[in-house]
Amino acid sequence: MSPDPQAAGTEPAPSPERQQALLTLLADEDPAVADSIRERLAPQGRPQAWLRAHRLHADPVIRSRVRALLDAQARLEADREFLEFCAGHGEHFDLEKAVWIFARTRNPEAPIEAYRAQLDDWARAAAPGVEAAVDGAAVVAALNAVLFGEQRFRGNTEQYFDPENSYLDRVIDRRRGIPITLCCLYQFVARRLGLPVVGIGMPGHFLCRYQDAQGEWLIDAFHGGRLVTRSEARQRLAHFFSMADSDGSILLQPISPRRCLQRMIANLHVIHQERRDAAESRRLQQYLILLSR
Fold first, then answer.
1. Pseudo-torsion of CA 180, 112, 175, 119, nearest 10°?
2. What pLDDT was estimated at residue 8?
3. Is 127 exposed, middle or buried (0-12, 13-18, 19+ CB in 10 A)?
């Protein structure tokens, strides 16, 4: 998508003296003055291009306010990119790509390529164990040793409803997440090794499944990669439904990338609704509307 010259802020830059005067006013203690200058420097939320040179300004107040203006614009651009992605894809797509685009709607400066490189490194670290595995349980153990052993990923039981648990960059930074984001992480590393790991969207929980010619293994990434039997999974399902199919097999089928992404955002939407964060709720709601089609 070619950039919009207006959105890119291509107005001629003022002189250095004029720039400093405007930035000083942007940092004014009077909110009315600061708001007036903010609107002038970023009409309709589009920061003037010359502001980028002041992102690391020596004055911490100026630096903070310039970065706020630039970040707001970056989030708008990421928001537009994610909306286009949701509208332009069907049930199946590259879930990892979607998750990274979604992460940028909240953290526009997230170094996505660096995070991808980390996933590559973890896959390489797990590869010897995977290659030596004699069965699916050993394959899972090799992945678990890297992700939950060496890297110490865990379910965030202390702050389960922290919104940052739903953004993969923050999950990687903090080594904490919720079932769906930890399962996504697990899948993305497994995919680099050519392993058929899929997400299982159970009601109230989320699992991964590794399957080969010998059988299947259900993996609880929230609890350190613990293996879950079908019997245990059915018992959990029984708490939610009186199921017509006695083994609950329908509810243990892989979830499509679109429904996985929808569920991830729906979880986050509920959190922001309960926090009465109207702006975030509206932002997420527009994604859900597109994904529900």
1. 80
2. 44
3. middle
